[in-house]
Amino acid sequence: MRLFLSGLAAVILLNILFVLPANAQSYGLAFNSHEVVQDKRTTLDLGLDNVSQKDNLQVSFDISFIPNRAIYFGYIMRLVGDDKQNIDLVYDNQANTCHFKIIVGERLSKISFNIDDKLLFGQWNKLRLLVDYKNDKITIISGKESYTEAGVHLQRAKSYKLLFGANAYRQYQTTDLPPIKLRDVKVIQEDKLICNWPLNEWQGNVANEIVNQNNGTVTNPLWVKARHRNWALDKEITLPGDATVAFDTANEVVYIITPDSLLTYSVNKVPQVKTIAYASGRQLLVPGGQTIFVNGKIYYLYVDQMSLGTYDPATQRWDKGFTNIATNNGHLNKFYNKADSSIYTIGGYGQLVYKDSVKRYDFVSNSWQQVKTRGDVFTPRYLAGLGTNATGDTAYVIGGYGSASGQQIVNPRNIYDMMRYSVKDQSFKKLFTIDVKKEDFAFANSLVINSKERSFYGLIFPQHKFNSSLQLVHGSLDKPAYTLVGDTIPYRFHDIHSYADISYFPQSSQFLTVTLFKENDQTRIKIYSLLSPPEPLTADGAEAMHTSLWVWIAVTLALASVAAVYLRKKRAVTPLDVIKPSEETTPVAILQTGPEALAEDDHNRNGNNKNAIFLFGDLQLFTPDGNEITKYFTPLLKELFLVIVLYSIKLDRGVSSEKLNEILWFDKSEKSARNNRSVNIAKLKSLLEQMGNCHLSKDTGYWKIEIDYSAISVDYHNYLNIVSNKNKLNKQKVLQLTHITQRGNFLSNIEYEWLDAFKSEVSNEIIDSYLQYANSTQIADDPEFLIKLANDIFYFDPVNEEAMILKCKALVHLGKHSLAKNAFENFNKEYKAIYGEDFERDFHSILE
């Protein structure tokens, strides 16, 4: 009975901690290879201490190769016995025939084989290495093929090292490895599974082993599961002047069109980025203009003049240019219809008017025309998302911002209907209206349509914020249901100065998002990627996941307690930090991302972000090991944490139980509120214990989070130290403050009514601090820094008069008179858009 109960508790606990995640398909470990420097290459180190000296040993694992790398060469696996004999699986792409080879000791064995490239790069492939000591032979099984060599002089061992990729283990160290993905590493002896590393982690440097808890270590990991949830910043480029973007999904190329050259970012080619100067000379681009890639050429749409510019990659020439630098049709939607060889545009915005018109460019007649539409009313709008079926004869338009009259002055609002436009009969049909779950949002320019599944992917963002963020959504074409998937992408939105678009690249099974932001006559371009299928991250789903985990933990603890009574001894409970969220079963996707960017990001996350709490930008908490635990916070736990931590840091007192009830459980009875509070306080305590040097207490009668600031970096605490004494501000402290605010506004993606006062105070204090320093500094002493300071103020207050004057004076001092004039005019436009009237001073008066 005792053994039964203790065993049952252990089995259930293992199921909770390990089995649930293992059911998913989007997992594994990817390896940094020759594309990064040696110090950033990936190592998987697995020890086999529980292996006995028996007649055979079997190692199996699933493997696939990462495509589009320059070098495929090196060690995949090294099995080292007693530090005396090595059995290696290597890949040699220099060989003329077979690339996979086995090495025993110092000798290349007779075993060699290939895996078809379509299988090797496109799916998981199981390999099994059988070491038969009794008969002195090695066998490797790949798919249905088996390869054997006898007489290799095998030596039994008491302990083994199982190493994958690069390693620094004694005389067996190597930095040569091919770019691989690995999962489900298993060791079997005498038909008994003795080790199993699924490699289904989200993050961290631990490879959990689920049979005997013989955990391995990983250096420089690229966890596949995380690439289905976290957008990777693959490329960041800053270019002079305006820029537009177009996608070639067939060849998996992103085109970036600039005034003097074409940049190509190729997913499937090395090098990934190329710059081609125009043979036709400089091309004037219109702010807010758009381009589209059709049949091997790039087309620049200038709807105002009913004109179209064509760029031919073969000749590297544009066929025409434009002279007007203003547009009356910004943020329009466009698509190409194969059936009638035409480009269509829908909606847009310009000169305080939202558009509802449909325009068509016919390649046969080389002419534009306005289409007279029928059917349901299409509300004038911009900032909508549009996608088409495969042929382009049916377009779906969702969301946007506009008004029924088209006039910006008359009740503009967010729009949430899904409209279908049929090219055949030139008609609109309203399909449904989606619900707003939280704050208002608009859409990035494109939708990715899956006609077979009757679904779409699109990017939404709150357009009323400058420091905004893009969130991928997965919705239906037939009903208003949609879910949030993947994490967010930082996005600075300032009307025609900003642009975001998304495309799906089927060969590499990934979404690519491009953001453009123009500032100071430069455009900053960022390219992000996310593997498909993306992980769902809805608030409801997170709440359900955590509820389920807590229920299972409670059951396990109860069973463990019963076992403890019978066994009359204490049992340790597995800590919460090894619990991973479960994942839906999904098809295999090829890992395709910028390895240098990912490696650098991983270095920052696990290095600079160790033991840190960030409240500026996205809320993030990092443990001493550099692991982010924010994902374990349900929406309720997140708000509970923020209430207590802000009152603790700001007031150094904490918050009373009554205040917590008032904020979080105002709709419940006193007894119900007390129960809810107790349960969630216990959960929060468990999570904070993972931080170390940080705990939740009620020693003073108030709930307070005690933090050792010498061990944990808290940006809000650092901010308060800087702004608390503005009379002692110097450039170093201002730089420290800008470093804090570069992450974004204070809790930028979180909205609570009680939080508004904190946010308002933070913004005012930051602006006052910047202006205090600026007013104490002569423009001639540091004009470049003062310009940056003015731009930082605009992030918090886009119509701050003092910042505008400061920027214009500094630019004039540097001799950049046209940029100063542009800064003043942009301020005027923003001022009029907000207040509905012109700014009362002219350019010359502010310089006096």
UniProtKB/TrEMBL annotation:
SUPFAM superfamilies attached here?
Answer: Galactose oxidase, central domain (SSF50965)
Keyword field: Signal
The positions making up the signal sequence are 1-24
Q: Does the keyword Acetylation apply?
A: no
Q: Which InterPro entries does UniProt cross-reference here?
A: AfsR-DnrI-RedD_regulator (IPR051677), Gal_Oxase/kelch_b-propeller (IPR011043), Kelch-typ_b-propeller (IPR015915)
Q: Does the keyword Transcription apply?
A: no
Q: What is this protein called?
A: Galactose oxidase
